[in-house]
Specification:
The structure is a homotetramer. Chain A is an alpha/beta fold. Chain A contains twelve helices and 14 strands. In chain A, the strands form three sheets. A six-stranded parallel beta sheet of chain A has the order 3-2-1-4-5-6, with helices on both faces. In chain A, helix 1 crosses helix 11. The longest helix of chain A is centred in the C-terminal third of the chain and has 17 residues. Chain A starts with a strand and ends with a helix. Chains A and B meet through strand 7, strand 10, strand 11, helix 9 and strand 13 of A and strand 7, strand 10, strand 11, helix 9 and strand 13 of B.
């Protein structure tokens, strides 16, 4: 298979840099265009970006000239990943989709749009079909999004429960890593030896996005899952890995703790058949040691694409309590978007521009 | 008022040291005896203890000779504070009570004993009357306990809700400071830049002690509060201050957010009349800034005796969510025990040994 | 004694806020005017400033209207403290001095000016006389500065060595707290679990300012001390307290370790006679425990105005090695400036404006 | 080449675990025997050890039965790595060497023995010849040691300076990671947000071992390098990577900064010819960015076997100042020992037991 040519929108930011790092040596995708603000346009990437990833900037990227995020500057790519800030993502992503360029976005702007898939490949791969309904998109173009970084471990763990028992309501507290705030992000004076009990804008996303993700596709529309979520999002002095303490009240009572543990342990990924390059072999891992999972020990497992679960408990009313954890900037952002792109390739939705151009 | 002569059992440990620090210059209590294991007995305190409090060891204490924790060694005190480890507290505290020496204990051993008050002065001062029923106590002796360090901010905040609305069930996640594990306690390799999702032995206490504390005294017995608690206890890299994310489902639905905020803001401490030396002027403080409370900024307020509340939210079903925080080693341990002793003095239960000795 | 009316230039910044906190309840000085940039002018302080001190903003300050830093706005003060950023301090401080308003500055701009005292009261109180030579100052006005935050513990510990043995050369490594970079300052992603081997602009100050401070006043001019300093400034994940590892090669060899320890222990502050409100009773404290001093345990001692010394060693060549530590934002900045002002009052140099105005 | 069969002495400790992790998949060495105290003997390794490495315990090791560290239990290995605690290493290592089993040790006990090589392959490979003089060793047996973890980056950076300019004296301050203290090691209460100005037992090693390492082999004996070292060892809240601030006074003055930078940049490893599996391709890396090296960013480079240098400065007297950093538990301990073993193989000193046993 020939590589697809990928552009990166918002290439100089924290998410854009993570895309660049994760796509180095990707077997299917090759970065051929980098987009940023007009201020960076025209400069080689090494000068435009303040590279903060803890690995060297790939040489093949360092010399690429940064382009302004205009569609006419990207007529040589097959699709784009978007790590754009939400303040500009709405306008730019729509322009790209309208001009026929597929957009795989990490931005929040279109996540809740009824015709845009909010996609986690292991959870709702069928939602991909929504892209056929995007009236705002031009020929061959569309937008697909991945959820907020907390939502990934949440839906990965709720999905099996929802299918087997039904979920009535969820109460969770997140302990989120500082990398989630980008760079420079959280001032050290705020967080060293401290916990912040609030993250602006975070809780509404955690309380809404899972309902769409776990919703069912009926007659071309997503019917949201019918439960409520109450989230309290906190910031802790951890580098990578968001840890969630989740309590799920279920419709049907499990027979006992072992049944729930078995459910998590034996869960089968629907991706197994596709052999996607970024898919973890075990996307959900059930820890039986009470001390696990920990962000420090487990966030990087399976190339930081795994969701770890632990401390499962079941009370007399059938409420299941557990902790869940995933790497927030890989699985929860750029890595999740790349997995989305891989699924779209496997499903035949993402193809070389030359093949899909009608004329 | 003349000072009461206080002994400290477990004086060389972390809780014992905190007692010593907090009682320096106390207007009512004067430390006159220090008890520890046989290994330390006979040594001056400065040699027996590895002093870790961040203030100098009081000179008046440094030279005191440490005694073994036998009742015959403490016949010159009016009462004792116990910071004993639970592995020995059960036997020793019982011996002291049986021999007529009142014990104000921070240990867990007798907290759930039906005849022992589990006491938070602002919450259940009437439970003091249980001490009259302690058959295991000798003339003038008794045991009073304070709860686990997480339970303090939990019952301080649940108490007003329970009284006004009734509590149906509680789900909480605690983010607990490293000082809660004593010294040497948590290895730095485990916690630096990390969160531990489990604290051995902690959750059962959090799930049971509040029910006794918020219970009602009926015919000399405590009838436990009738709700359930689900706790997930985690350890975070914070020095002092346990932060709780609490969700309380209520029997009667509040009219709205403002009503709940008003309830917390206007809550009146039953201690106001007593003018106890260690009582905070505002034991419950309602923060309106979403970023507050934080362990780093607020744990030390009001000499570390205050419970801080913030982030109050009410959902459509009347479930109230909020965060609560208190200093774990002061309010949650030694400071709480000292406040218990002060209330017992104010209520006439704790008096000079000479006055209560029958013969 | 009546209070002197003090203005604060740069009142909304980190240093300005520290001035406000430290001057609350000061027996000699009362803040009556707050100066900041034109952007803040006209607003009440509580709205102009993002208050980050870990204590509540004093009520008496919260409502004060912020003024632009123009001399005509400050004709009602006796003097000003300057916490201005160095980008503007040069121009503004000169204007104030020229217009007859004494300036006690924490900014670096005039520290090395030959006619401006670079003052540490315990070290070079006689340098105050330089203010009589300031041709740029108007009637009654002058500028006095305090040194860089690392320089305080350095000259406090070198001063006794220089006087008794003579110093030939100094090599030091500083481990500096994050509060030294202000707010938002150091990003948490840079410093959590890390050490930064460089602090921009810091080393040249550490290598030059002590030479002026330890210089001798001869015929109205400072002759710099004649030794060399090599500094390596690093940033560590500590909140407050700069720790220095110092090696001083001496002209005359000490007789041994005990002699040097005695020198530090018996050092007498020249301030003892003045009874200044902010002067620590023991400005220099010699720790004999090898594990001390530590920023966490000792930075706050004596209201954070003390320099702590420890780990003194002497090698065969007479080189003395030790660690020294002081609180960087109190003793090393605002607190040091306040102590300077107190000395100037005691020496009769700082007086009510009414008394010194000629016409 | 067939694998050599390696035993691990002290296999359950922190260094032993690191040996096991680093030797998984090693092309030359295969672990076939694990030694620990009598308490662990007889248990499978997975039960005997509290595995703390952040990767899973290799399956091939988990089931190996732990043996007591007696020579008769290790007659089936070609040699042993020793991660023994110094309290027992002296006796056990000598017994192994005496019985004809080569010992590659990380313990300090024999480092300064005149007949034992204290070896850093890039620095003093010729010192290997000392093993022929070990009278305490039996037929085919010997002991080779690697230095203290701080000494590695120190001698890696001093070695080129010593050869070209001669070193007169060295003053250094180390900022050492918590992993250097093993597990449980440094209590979090001591180090979170703090710096400890002392590490027991560390400075004498730093001040003596480099002199042997940089010494010259003359007539079968090491003549120590003739300069003095003054070290101040501190502990910082960093996980891995010891950072050193070094000042080296030189015999011959460099012509300037560029000459010293060139020296470090163009330094050639004497190992290049050998192609050792664990040798970094560039054992010494010269950073030109003032902010580098940092433990967090650079300790893991080249499989954590590299020494990073930065912030090079030269003063008027020819004193060179710089920072140096290396991973303390890999390059500074188990990894360094493995590299020693590889060099010994390449030099023909370490061979299969069968080949060297005379009878």
């Amino acid at each position: 298979m020939n590589s697809l040519k990928a552009g990166i929108l918002g290439a100089t930011g924290a998410v854009g840099q993570k895309f660049i790092r994760l796509l180095e040596n990707h077997p299917w995708f090759k970065i051929t265009a980098l987009g940023a603000s007009g201020r960076s346009a025209g400069k080689p990437y090494r000068k435009a970006a303040n590279w903060v990833e803890p690995v060297p900037l790939p040489e093949s990227i360092a010399g690429l000239e940064v382009r302004e995020c205009k569609t006419t500057n990207f007529d040589d790519v097959d699709f784009v990943f978007s790590g754009l800030d939400s303040s500009v993502a709405g306008k730019i992503e729509k322009e790209f989709a309208a001009s026929g360029i597929p957009v795989i976005s990490n931005a929040k702007n279109f996540r809740m749009h009824p015709d845009v898939p909010l996609l986690v490949p292991e959870v709702n791969p069928d939602h991909i079909d929504l892209i056929d309904r995007q009236e705002f998109s031009g020929d061959g173009g569309w937008i697909v999004t991945n959820p907020n970084c907390v939502v990934i471990p949440l839906v990965m763990s709720l999905s099996p429960l929802e299918k087997v028992y039904g979920v009535e309501s969820v109460i969770l507290t997140s302990m989120q890593a500082i990398s989630g705030a980008g760079y420079p992000g959280v001032p050290s004076l705020d967080i060293l030896g401290n916990v912040l009990p609030f993250i602006p804008g975070e809780e509404p996303k955690i309380e809404s996005e899972p309902l769409k993700l776990l919703g069912t596709l009926e007659e071309g529309k997503v019917r949201d899952a019918g439960f409520s979520i109450r989230a309290t999002a906190t910031r802790v002095p951890v580098r990578n890995g968001h840890l969630l303490s989740v309590n799920a009240s279920l419709t049907h009572k499990p027979s006992g703790l072992e049944e729930v543990i078995d459910l998590f342990e034996n869960w089968q990924s629907p991706l197994a058949e596709h052999d996607l390059p970024s898919a973890p072999s075990r996307p959900l891992w059930m820890h039986k040691n009470n001390d696990h999972p920990q962000p420090l020990l487990h966030a990087e497992e399976e190339k930081a694409m795994r969701t770890s679960i632990g401390r499962v408990r079941v009370d007399d009313n059938g409420t299941v309590s557990f902790v869940a954890m995933a790497h927030n900037t890989v699985r929860g952002a750029a890595g999740g978007a790349i997995l989305n792109a891989e699924l779209l390739v496997a499903k035949g939705k993402l193809t070389p521009a030359a093949e899909r151009s009608p004329g």
